[in-house]
Write a structure and sequence with these properties.
Layout: H1 2-29, H2 38-53, H3 64-84, H4 86-105, H5 117-137, H6 145-155, H7 162-179, H8 182-202, E1 208-215, H9 220-228, E2 233-238, E3 245-254, H10 258-268, E4 273-277
Antiparallel strand pairs: 1-3, 1-4, 2-3
Helix pairs in contact: 1-4, 1-5, 2-3, 2-7, 3-4, 3-6, 5-8, 6-7, 7-8, 9-10
């Protein structure tokens, strides 16, 4: 039953995340002709080419953007399947389909909801970044540059997932610079920056924390090793006040794994003393996890 609850919780996060992301793009960004970074921006440019240059007929209220977004993800999804495995790719395929559907069916207002372009970029970035971060937090992905990034991060541990997004975004905004004015590009960059900030705030797998645990109970180190699946370093200490032996355990985990670690510690030694340092900088190998 617990597994079912967790699955339903994650499914809810994926639905809400994709809805929030698509609403941020369609309701705030598209009406004022700003451009997103990544594959969404590529889909926007292709849609502009089809409708404004090649004059493709519009099919009712259906937006071509979602369909284009889905099609350009297909080859990268195949690549991710080989690298990341079946579980990650099934949830990602569902998420891509949801994002594509929401981008297609959420109507783009003919008259902008917010006329101020800076405000629209900020609000749109908040909604889109929150949504994208929520999907990643659920152990899934919306595809696009995320698929490329997580594959390279899996095969090259020191690779930064955001690097791919930066390269694609720079390319998109350079193209926009030749098509539109400088202000459009600058407002689009504000949207992209806001999106990135909120992704990092919500996507807690990106945040590393250092945990130092002091316990007198046996078995805690092996429990962390086997249940949390993180490496630990241990040594023996002596309490200065009590002069009693103490096991000192140090590990580095993602912020996402912190609740699980606390559960393990509370079960084995409710009286354990723990020091947590957020945003720990790690040099050397640290396994990045995108699913549990």
């Amino acid at each position: 039953m617990e597994i079912n609850k967790r699955t339903l919780y994650r499914a809810g996060m994926i639905v809400l995340g994709n809805l929030s992301y698509s609403a941020g793009v369609n309701l705030m960004i598209n009406p004022i002709h700003l451009y997103s970074g990544g594959f969404t921006g590529i889909a926007q440019l292709i849609r502009m080419l089809l409708l404004d240059v090649l004059h493709f007929p519009q099919i009712g209220s259906l937006d071509y953007m979602g369909i284009i977004y889905f099609l350009i993800n297909v080859p990268f999804f195949i690549m991710a399947y080989r690298v990341m495995g079946r579980k990650f790719c099934i949830t990602t395929l569902i998420s891509i389909a949801m994002a594509s559907a929401f981008l297609s069916i959420i109507p783009v207002p003919q008259t902008p909801i917010v006329d101020d372009r800076i405000l629209a970029a900020l609000v749109g970035g908040l909604g889109s970044g929150f949504g994208a971060g929520l999907v990643l937090r659920a152990g899934s992905s919306q595809g696009g540059q995320d698929l490329i990034g997580v594959c390279l991060a899996k095969t090259h541990p020191d690779f930064k997932v955001g690097a791919i997004g930066i390269v694609i975004s720079v390319t998109i905004y350079t193209i926009c610079l030749f098509i539109y004015d400088v202000q459009t590009v600058l407002y689009s960059i504000i949207f992209a920056v806001m999106t990135g900030i909120f992704i990092d705030r919500v996507h807690t797998q990106n945040i590393k924390i250092e945990c130092m645990i002091f316990t007198k109970k046996e078995g805690l180190a092996s429990a962390i090793l086997n249940e949390v699946n993180r490496g630990v370093t241990t040594w023996e200490g002596i309490g200065a006040y009590t002069q009693s032996d103490t096991h000192v355990i140090v590990t580095v985990i993602s912020k996402y794994e912190e609740p699980h670690l606390r559960e393990v510690i509370a079960r084995i030694d409710p009286d354990a003393f723990m020091i947590i340092t957020d945003n720990a900088r790690v040099a050397g190998y640290f396994q990045k996890r995108f699913t549990e």
